[in-house]
Amino acid sequence: MEIDRKAAGKAFSAYVQAYDPQNPKIALKIAHTYRVAALCETIAQSQSLCSADIDLAWLTGLLHDVGRFEQVRRYGTFNDAESIDHALLGARILFEEGRIRDYLASPDEDELLETVIRLHSVYRLPQQLGTRARMFCHILRDADKVDILRANCETPLTDIYNVSPQALRTARVSPAVMESFARRQATLRTLKKTPVDNVVALASLTFELVYPVSIRVVQQQGYLQSLLHFETDDPATAAQFAQLRAEMDAYLFAHTQA
Ligand SMILES: [Fe+2]
After folding, report:
1. Ligand 1: distance of its center to the CA of 222 in Å?
2. How far is the CA of 140 from the centre of ligand 1 (A)?
3. Which of 122, 181, 212, 255 has its CA 20 to 30 A from that of 138?
4. How far is the CA of 173 from the centre of ligand 1 (A)?
């Protein structure tokens, strides 16, 4: 199946024009979209997929956060728990309202695209997912996480989590969050109790990455390292981060040695 990437890119930029691209929240999501699409392409290439499937992976990146624009217009927030599931909203806009035809003439891959977009932000993929859909889900979810690490490091943590610099510099990592990190698991939202737990949760996304190339991109970006060199006034927190860095270094070493 042919994907006209130029036409799809034009359709996306026309779509977001209606949502005030000068608004910083919108601008962030537009930049995120293009980066995720490019990362999907990189990951797909690393798996030696055929060119049609590389294009398809790129398209999942371009479309994955379509729901974000309508979410912020309706609710003024990107917090799904306080508003709406942006992945389901995006799937509805594309496949129930038919906007997908603005991006892609053929309906051949609609089912796959809808599945991948719907599932891009769930905590765990459903067991019964087929091999091909699972692969495209993994590609998109890896790309999204890699760019979430970047985006969250480029915005001051005090802004993202609405905490004072003082609160951030004096907080400790909760024991349950330390334990979850030691088990190499992504931190569950319910475990987070202190402002620095968010920092650890962000770094822990690395454990969820499926493809070696995703881990290599994370290492090259350097954001993970700066997160784990967290500046604190509390020696106990400094010791916690030294331990987290050692655990992450061991993990990265084991997962990037081919
Ligand atoms: Fe998303």
Report:
1. 22
2. 10
3. 181
4. 27
188 Cα: distance to centroid of ligand 1 (angstroms): 17
Average pLDDT over residues 23-49: 95
Q: 195 alpha carbon to ligand 1 midpoint, in Å?
A: 23
What letter would DSSP give residue 80?
G
CA–CA separation, 202 and 248 (whole Å)? 12
Find how far residue 215's CA is from the centre of its chain: 13
Which tops the pLDDT comparison, 123 or 218? 218
Q: Write down the mean pLDDT value for the chain.
A: 93
pTM for the whole thing?
Answer: 0.91
pLDDT tens column, 40-57: 999 999 999 999 999 999
The token pair at 144 is: 């999204």
- How many Å lie between the centroid of ligand 1 and the Cα of residue 237? 31
Contacts by 30-37 with C-beta closer than 8 Å and gap 24+? Answer: 32/65, 32/147, 32/151, 33/61, 33/62, 33/64, 33/65, 34/62, 35/147, 35/150, 36/61, 36/64, 36/65, 36/140, 36/143, 36/144, 36/147, 37/61, 37/62, 37/143
Q: Which amino acid is at 82?
A: E
Q: For residue 198, how far is its CA from the centre of ligand 1 (angstroms)? A: 18
